[in-house]
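Note to self: keep these together.
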Amino acid sequence: MRYIHRYSPPCQSGFTLIEALITSVILSIGLLGVAALQYSGLKNNNRSIERSLATILAYDITDRIRSNMPAGESGDYLVDPDNPPAKPAISSGSDPRDYCLTDFTATSRNGLCNSEELAAADIFNWFSTVQDTLPGGLGRITCADADSTDMTSCSAGSIYTITIMWDDARKNVSGTGCDPADEDDLLCFSLVTAI
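Structure:
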């Protein structure tokens, strides 16, 4: 009987070191992609929250101005970020945010705020909330007077522009020009409304 020898390739019994290395590199690249996607999602979610807060704060001060029209018409609600509102006069140990809410000690009539005092309290509370809520937060309120012939600064029907600025990229910028092309300017949200 004739014996025929057939060639059979050697059996593969496991991965070689090169195959394991290539597999781990591909897996690492995939995991880095997932991590980058997660970071991008969190960053966009944070931006969305900040824009929502800016919108809420803009509508909040708009409602405060509308509820105190005498002060709104006399320009008591105008704010410049370079000249923040002063802390209201309060009794010692009181929180300045309680002025005209529960602390009436330094008001014109004990127990009651006049429209100017209420506007000072509203502006201080609003500006402080913008600073506390948004990173590097600042606010600006301007008015285009509808009737320049009368004695009021912002007559009924005037156009108010409420601008809320914050450091969206957290780069410690402080420019208040609201120019999106300028890297040193804060991100701005503006609400334009007639009051």
